[in-house]
Amino acid sequence: MSVWDEVVGQRAAIEQFTRALVPGGNLAQAWLIAGPPGSGRSIAARAFAAALQCEQANGCGQCHACRMVLAGSHADVSVVATDTLSISKDEVRSLVATAQRSPATAPYRIIIVEDADRMSAGTFNVLLKAIEEPPPRTIWMLCVPSAQDMAQTIRSRCRLVTLVTPAPADVADLLARRDGADPQTASRAARAAQGHIGIARRYVHQPEALAQREEAARALLALTSVGGAVAYAQKLVEAANAEAKDEADRVAQSQQEEFLRATGQEAAGRIPPQLRSQLKQLEDEAKKRATRMTRDVIDRFLLDIHSVFRDVLTLQLNAGAEIINEGVMDALQARAEYSTPASSLAMLDEVGTARERIGGNVPPQLALEALLAQAALG
Predict the structure, then answer these.
(1) Which pLDDT score, from 0 to 100, does residue 26 have?
(2) Exposure string (b/e) for 169-200, b if CB count within 10 Å is 16 or more?
(3) What's the whole-model pTM score?
(4) Cα separation of 348 and 103, whole Å?
């Protein structure tokens, strides 16, 4: 076993990391790990951190240090991850303070910032000096979807590692090896997830989620009117809100229980006035988390829509590429026969436009209605 076993389909990145590990390998003190959603940015960062702290100095994956880092419990490896809209200045200031301390037991103090693109411009300024002049044994790892998502002042001071979307075959192999999925199910899940490791795992462990995705694809391909498009857009937004709320409520309840336990309070008891502001802060964070999760779910729906029209275009052009949505092949073929390649290509552009609009704070309902109306008329 190696720390790199779950870094799927990233041979070039692993080679770049391992070159830095060898004596004289010119190990940088700030790394920018960029890769699309699902490429395993945080997994790669943790694997690199484990290799740096490894007692065998080779990323063995077996020693105490490797296992502690991969489990997220190593004292000298700090990870900040957010599922809200942004990473606050206070969180970054706390990390900067941590970065100034010498490592307690390991060769390095390592700071991993997942979703570093969620820092505001003001927060970048807090981080800049710590990146420019870190203590000798401190290493920063910033994870972002794209290098362009990070401010130039930060980007220029980091060594860039670029990840790619893993091939479905690589993801399927991981699912079979790690999760025990049968090869056929693993392959189907990996294709439907378009190389997104987390979503592929969800499809393997929740077959109903994959069935719902295929049902949604059939409903999309069956749209024939603007009224139907509006109704379908509303259905997607409601589904996104429900999924995000369920997950946000689960996390919020866990955090609240942990807070009450840490402060010695009863779950149904009266909260002392001095603790109410902290509890209110947890509630506010839960609302922000739900908002962010809703956007993430809708973006996933948009990528699913993109994959459907990509498959239609593949059939129309007889391109011979692998079909992502193989479970709805009959509906894809029907659409390919009565529409044109130009309309399919236009739909792919419309999906990109919808993502830009939602990213610019256009209400998701309106952006989806415009997109799906085009699908119905095309």
Answers:
(1) 82
(2) ebbbbbbbeeeebeeebbbbbbbbbbbbbebb
(3) 0.76
(4) 49
